[in-house]
Amino acid sequence: MTVVPSAVLPRHHYAATAIGLALALYGICGLVAREVREAVGAWPVIGASSTGWKSLRRWTATASTLWPCIRAAPDSWQPRQRAERAATTLVGHAPFSQPPEHAAFIGAAHAR
Predict the structure, then answer these.
(1) Does residue 3 belong to any structural domain of this protein?
(2) Can you list the positions of beta strands (E) in the chain?
(3) Is residue 53 within 8 Å of residue 112, measured between CB atoms?
(4) Does residue 1 fall inside a structural domain?
(5) DSSP at 73
(6) N or C: at which end does the chain have fewer Cβ atoms within 10 angstroms?
């Protein structure tokens, strides 16, 4: 048996808290993917031909599988809309009021 903190998601390099923060920065705060990667990314060096952030795109598409409490978004929604839905749901799981990006970070650890 392996015991890890509740914020660790199975088969993910990033913790739930980091993913929640990334979704909030992108969906609520309106940062572009490059800015989100600079704020949350684990590696400071990005390839010259890199466009966007594949992990952020994957997280916006699969947020409802990472946290079952997040309702699946309609197929017609853009990634930013999906990220906003996911982040606002995570904000609702934060135990106390704070700026949305902070609440999404904390709420991601508590959401199930």
Answers:
(1) no
(2) none
(3) no
(4) no
(5) P
(6) N
